[in-house]
Design goal:
Layout (H helix, E strand, L loop, with lengths): L8 E3 L6 E6 L5 E4 L9 E6 L3 E6 L10 E2 L39
Antiparallel strand pairs: 1-2, 2-3, 4-5, 4-6
Length: 107
């Protein structure tokens, strides 16, 4: 795969590296490092319908293809813990006692 198939680069918001947001066949955007590697898990092919598309590397299907590494493998904005999960909203009823059926409500 020629490097000119990679979409234009942009900067990572967590580090100063250049990344290429490459669409996958499912339509998701995958951040790839611009430098080819021997052990990369992704290859980019020119798909007739989708344009440049990232595919997970398979030795049978992509023998001799240029491999790339996902930028997420080396940039760890949360110390390698992955994306920050959404915060849980506090339960407004936590700590309140509700009367059982037939119980008297006391102030």
């Amino acid at each position: 795969m020629a490097p000119d198939l990679l979409p234009p680069g942009s900067r990572c918001k967590f580090c100063p590296a250049t990344i290429h947001w490459t669409p996958t066949r499912l339509g998701r955007k995958l951040p790839l490092d611009p430098e080819p590697t021997l052990d990369g898990a992704w290859v980019v092919h020119q798909d007739p319908a989708l344009g440049p598309t990232a595919y997970h590397y398979s030795p049978q299907a992509h023998a001799g293809a240029t491999r790339y590494r996902s930028h997420l493998e080396r940039c760890h904005p949360n110390d390698g813990k992955g994306p920050t999960p959404p915060r849980r909203q506090p339960d407004p009823t936590a700590g309140l006692k509700f009367p059982r059926r037939g119980e008297e409500v006391r102030p």
